[in-house]
Structure formats: structure tokens, C-alpha cells
Amino acid sequence: MKDESVDLGIWDKLTRAVMFLLVVAIVTGIGYLCVPLIQQNERMRQRNLELEASIQREEDAARQLKAGLDAQRSDPKAVERLAREKLGYAKPGEVVIRFQEPAAGATGKP
Question: Is residue 29 part of a domain?
Fold first, then answer.
């Protein structure tokens, strides 16, 4: 028996090259379309992390405020301390001394 394979020569090679280039073009096109989506996804993921950190900070602040409010509602000493600090109240016989911040630009030297 003789080997009867047909040699298509240049056409076979050209067909393979065109198919290879077509696959490369399709992969490149898909990559070109996906890169902006991947970048947008990364930006959104970063923004999500920032927002979660912000939420955590706000929840911590809310817990501190709630603790202060609960102390003011239930602890008479906390109410007294608040009145002394914020309103300048004093017990009979006590003297209240208030300090002021120096004006901006004042050096204190004549």
C-alpha cells in the first residue's frame, strides 16, 4: 500500500496561521473588553472597604455616645461632672476659674 496523503502545501499552513491569528484576535478582544470591568471591580471593592471602615468608626462613635447618655440617665455623678465641665456650675463655696485660648496671632510679647 502506498501512502496517499495529500499535501496541500502552502494552503494548509495558511489555514492554520489564519486560525491561530483568529484565536489570538478573539482572546485579545475579550481581554480588551474585560480589563475595564476588572479595573471597575477593583475600584468598587476598594470603595466598599472604605465604606465598611467608615461604618465601623460611626458605630464606635454611636456606642460611645450611647454609653455617655446611659451614664447621664443613671449616674448622678456623671450629671454633676457634666454640669461642672460644660455649664461651669460649682458647689456652694467653690470658685470657678475659666481659661481662654489665646487669640490667633497673639504671641504674648509686647
Answer: yes
Write the DSSP symbol of residue 108: S
Give the angle 7-8-9 at the CA atoms, nearest 5°. Answer: 90
**Contacts (Cβ under 8 Å, ≥6 apart) of 108:** 102
Can you state the percent helix, strand and coil of the chain, rounding each to 5? 70, 0, 30
- Does residue 107 sit within a domain? no
Write out the three cell numbers for 96: 470657678
Could you tell me the pTM of the whole model? 0.50
Domain count for the chain, please give it.
1
From the CB of residue 60, how many other CB atoms can be counted at a distance below 10 Å?
10
Domain that holds residue 30: 10-87
Packing angle between helix 76-87 and helix 10-74, nearest 10 degrees?
A: 100
> For 17-39, how does the pLDDT look when each residue is reduced to its tens digit (9 = 90+)?
999 999 999 999 998 888 989 99
